[in-house]
Amino acid sequence: MHSKRLWPVLILFLLVAGTIGLSCSAVRAHQIETLELEYKLKAAFLYNFARFIEWPKVNDPSFPFIFCVLGKDPFGAALSGLQERSIDDQAIKLHYAAGISTGLDQCQMLFVSKSEKQNMHQVVRFTKGKPIVTVSDIEGFASADGMFEFIITEGKLSFIINNSKAQACGLRVSSSLLNLALKVQ
Prior knowledge:
With 185 residues, the chain is α/β, with parallel strands linked by helices. It has one domain: Rossmann fold (3-Layer(aba) Sandwich), CATH 3.40.50. 38% of the residues lie in helices and 23% in strands. The protein contains 4 helices and 10 strands; from the N terminus they run αβββββαβββαβαβ. The longest helix is centred in the N-terminal third of the chain and has 50 residues, at 2-51.
């Protein structure tokens, strides 16, 4: 007799749990799509940052422009399209680094993934005085002497530029790019 009364409750529980599970799956799928879009936008920003920065002259123009990602790659396929482009007539080559000691000195632009937050200060020290543009979406990156920090304000992607750091490394950020920044340090 007890089990007859439990069936409707059990069925209702399963229906609610299933609905919640589907809702969570839908929310998760939306979050993944939003994150993919965010990193596609960041990839486009990175390419344009590189176009509006003046590096010291390269002796061999056939040498590729090396774009590096340090740590866990948040971009997925979003960066692959960059390899079809060039910066100042230099073909773009992507380099994925697991750590600081894995070829970062060859980079012209270095994206520091959030997975490297605990190593952020080491990365900044490593790049000090070198013409390597450092970019990250780690909160406080520009204040910690990184050059570009992505931030999202009011649902919009923007960035902070640490121009004094760029100048100290022999890099010149165009005034057009400085004018687009949310903040220039």
